[in-house]
Write a structure and sequence with these properties.
Layout: E1 8-13, H1 16-42, H2 47-69, E2 72-76, E3 79-84, E4 87-92, E5 96-102, E6 105-110, E7 115-118, H3 123-126, H4 131-146
Antiparallel strand pairs: 1-2, 2-3, 3-4, 5-6, 6-7
Length: 151
C-alpha cells in the first residue's frame, strides 16, 4: 500500500533567511553571467570572461543548492528522513532511543549506539539558534518514542 503525505508529521528546512541567502547566492552570479554573455554579443572577444562568469555562477548555484536549499528533516509516522549535504538517511523510529540538539543539528541516537545528525537544525544552516525549532522536533520525537518504541 502506498503511503501518502498524510503520514508526514513535520518537515523542517533551513531557515527562511538561509533559503533567501541560498537563492541570492545562486541568482546574483547568474545575472552577472547573463550580463557577461549579453556584452559578449556586442564584443565577441569578451566570450572568455562570459565563460568564466558562467562557470562561477554554476559553481555557486550548485553549492547553494547542495548546502542550503536541499537539506531538510522529515518526521513521518514510520521513519525519520534526514536529507543532508552529504547524503540522505532513513531511520526507522524503532531504532531511535533519544533525540538531542548538537552543534551540527538535531541528533537522533539509535539503540545500537550510533548518532545520526539532521543538518537542517544546525546553527550554521540557519544562522540563528535552533532551540525553538528543535523543541517541536523533540516534542514529536518524545511522542513517537512513548508510543511503543524502545527507550
Amino acid at each position: 500500500m502506498d503511503k501518502g503525505r498524510d503520514d508526514v508529521i513535520g518537515v523542517w528546512r533551513v531557515s527562511r533567511s538561509g533559503r533567501v541567502a541560498g537563492y541570492l547566492l545562486a541568482a546574483v552570479p547568474a545575472c552577472g553571467a547573463l550580463s557577461a554573455w549579453l556584452s559578449a554579443l556586442s564584443h565577441p572577444d569578451a566570450q572568455n570572461s562570459a565563460g568564466i562568469a558562467t562557470a562561477f555562477a554554476l559553481g555557486l548555484g550548485l553549492f547553494s543548492w547542495w548546502r542550503l536549499l536541499r537539506v531538510r528533516l522529515e518526521l513521518t509516522t514510520d521513519v525519520i528522513v534526514m536529507v543532508n549535504p552529504w547524503g540522505t538517511q532513513r531511520l526507522p523510529w524503532s531504532h531511535v532511543s533519544a533525540v538531542s540538539l548538537g552543534n551540527w543539528g538535531a541528533q537522533f541516537h539509535t539503540t545500537d549506539g550510533f548518532k545520526y545528525t539532521a543538518f537542517t537544525l544546525s546553527d550554521m544552516a540557519a544562522g540563528t539558534r535552533q532551540d525553538e525549532r528543535f523543541a517541536d522536533v523533540q516534542r514529536i520525537a518524545n511522542s513517537q518514542l512513548r508510543n511503543g518504541q524502545p527507550l
